[in-house]
Amino acid sequence: MKGINKRVAIGFMSIVALLFVSGMISLFELSNLSNDTENILSTGKRNMELAKDMLNSAHDHSRAIINMAIFNDHAYDSLCRSSLNALEERIASARSESFNAECLDSLAITVKELRTLSDAYLVPAAAESNAKSAEPSIADDFALAEGSVTGKIWYETKYQTVYTRLLGQIKHFMQLTHSSLAPRAAQLNRNAYRSVTPVFISLLVMIAIVLMFFYFVNVYCVRPIVRINTALSNYLTFKLPFRVKAELLDELKELHDNIDTLVNISKQTKQ
Amino acid sequence: MRFSVILRYIGTVMLCVAAFMAVAAGISYMDNDSGYYPLLLSSLLTLLLGAFPMLFVQKAETISNKEGFSIVVGSWILACVVGMFPYLIWGGEFSLIDAWFESVSGFTTTGATILDNVEALPQGLLFWRSSTCWIGGAGVVMFALVILPSMGTNKMALSSVELSSLAKDNYRYRTQIIVRILLMVYVGLTLLTTVLLRVAGMRWFDALNHAMSACATGGFSTKNASIGYFDNPIIEIILIVAMLLASIHFGLIYATFTRKANNMFRSEVVRTYGIVIAIGALSIALSIYLAGLYPTFGQAVRESVFQFVSIISTTGFATTDTNLWTPFAIMILIVASIVCACAGSTSGGLKIDRLLLFVKVFFARLRLQRHPNAVVRIRVDGIVQEESQLDAVMVFIVSYLCFMLIGTLFNTMFGLDMMTAFSSAAACIGNVGPGFGEVGSLDTYSQLPAVLKLQDTLLMLMGRLEIFGFIQLLFIKWWR
């Protein structure tokens, strides 16, 4: 391939390449945008799941404590421990998923406080209960009732304070993540505009190149052919000299020169 | 006028711009920052835009004066358009208008910014920002002229447009050599300043950026507090010298270093420039010292010399907030931002050469009134100035002041106070950068309405293309 053919082909290929690049850019930017959107949605969903699990575990722990401290039912001991473990697991998993670290730190501290509190009360209480359950008597029933009263007081004064704080912190964790979604959604809105910008710029450049291509094809291909044709017609019809006023390149220049030679030969033959 | 030839040579300039973008992309790649993708994409698009006309249009043997004008003005405008691509793609603080403002401000070496937090920009973009100043400093077309030696005789037509007749006065060489001298002095000065700034304690990256900005008399800094961030008297002295040299005719600097007779110490214009700087800086120092703004006279001199040289050389670096200075000091700085430096340098503004001619014409007129039949010749450096040259200078001064006043009027129309309106118009048309009021030395143009930002970019382009080159394009007859 050479001459005009080569120029037009390269020009055409440039436009195709730019179209391809624009397409790739839009794909890339759209996939980025899609990832961001997905990320925001999945963060929200995950936050809800974690918060729900934490609330369930907290509720289980509270239920176990009530049964153990007020009703002296130590069968709930395993639920008490497993619910605390579950809470700690949820906090650890939230931490690994890059949720608000500050909020998770205070949650972890409260859970630790809750564990210390329940351990400090429940371990001696369980030992005492075990000792007394060996030989039950009327005096023991009184002691149990007295113990229940003490447990109730402990639950209301000590445990419930920490438990309420824990619930508040779980709710705060839920709200914090959700309130941070609003600016992220706004950022997403801006990102959408930014995603369009590279594509828009590529399209602008492509329009400029298409216009230039049209102009050059017109100036260097179409116009010379039209003018050569007009000059040849003028020569054949009116015997006007064969003169072409156009930018001539490659084959078109050859064509012009060949016609000019033919015209000269024709003139000489007639003479 | 051959439109295709114009496109081809503008394309050459675009290739140079693309090369600088590619270097900036390389810096971003090494730094692993977020500027890599915007710069690389912009570089590729600019490359394609620049290379496309070369596919069809062959080298022209000759270029007419009109074509030369169109190539130069078109190159400036298109360079500004492609220059905003990296900013727009990167995002951050840049909206469409802001990216255009930053790009025009860079290429016209104005150095005014819309960025409230410059330090948030990745290193690649910071380098690109300084590059726009540096490319603009030498003149977009000058790069093409030197990089493409095959253009041969066409250099004459283009450089006659790029260099004003005043600027060419002090060159006593052929045009091709003028171009080489200009580039040699420019690159040499930039490299020397970079090394000196590094030795004075800047990081290599900051040193290079500040050197590029100082030698282009641009004023873009990599820090929010500009040069005030470094608080280092040695850095300030190096930059004062660099700004001074960059604002003196490059031909005279070359002649001085090669020990030619027509060196800068013998130039009347440079002498006048020196006297203006000495009087201006000393007056400001006295004013701010007596007002009790600085504890010692030495500190007042340090601040006043730096700020005065920065403004009169049209650089716009800052070490302090000049809004806090006395009204007298502020007025001197505003006058300096109108008068500016020498022709044939990278600075903008009215130029001290024209001011000198104006003063001489003024006294000649007084003399003619006393002796109506006298033949009065006006000379600069012993060379008699032609009437047409004097007329051109007078028309330029009047036009310059008129456009500055129109700019001020337009600014006040949109609610700016008088100080901000006048000083921003003067700073933009003079390619100085910082003004006073809301656009002070440590402030930005970010809070201005979009329409005023557009107006300011028009003033910057007008100032850089010495008014007539830009206005010429607006006349339809010109294109026939």
Please, could you describe this protein's structure?
- The complex is a heterodimer of chains A (271) and B (480).
- Chain A has helices at 3-69, 77-96, 101-134, 138-238, 250-270.
- Chain A is mainly alpha-helical.
- The radius of gyration of chain A is 43 Å and the shape is rod-shaped.
- In chain A, helix 1 packs antiparallel against helix 2, helix 2 (77-96) runs antiparallel to helix 3 and helix 3 (101-134) runs antiparallel to helix 4.
- Chain B has 480 residues and is mostly helical.
- Among the domains of chain B are: 1-162, no CATH class; 352-479, no CATH class.
- In chain B, 65% of the residues lie in helices and 1% in strands.
- Chain B has helices at 3-31, 36-56, 65-83, 85-90, 96-107, 123-138, 140-147, 154-162, 165-168, 175-199, 204-215, 233-246, 250-257, 268-290, 297-312, 327-339, 352-370, 387-413, 418-429, 450-464, 468-472; strands at residues 379-380, 383-384.
- Chain B has a two-stranded antiparallel ribbon with strand order 1-2.
- In chain B, strand 1 and strand 2 (383-384) form a beta hairpin.
- Mean pLDDT of chain B is 87; it is low at 147-162.
- Chain A binds chain B through residues 7, 10-11, 14, 18, 21, 25, 190, 194, 197-198, 201-202, 205, 208-209, 212-213, 215-216, 219-220, 247, 249, and chain B through 3-4, 7, 38, 41-42, 44-45, 48-49, 52-53, 55-58, 85, 88-89, 91.
Q: Please write the string of helix (H) and strand (E) elements of chain B.
A: HHHHHHHHHHHHHHHHHEEHHHH
Number of strands of chain B: 2
* Cα distance spanning the termini of chain B: 7 Å
Q: How many β-strand stretches of chain A? A: 0
Biggest sheet character of chain B:
2 strands, antiparallel
Keywords, separated by commas or semicolons:
heterodimer, A: 271 residues, mainly alpha, 90% helix, rod-shaped, B: 480 residues, globular
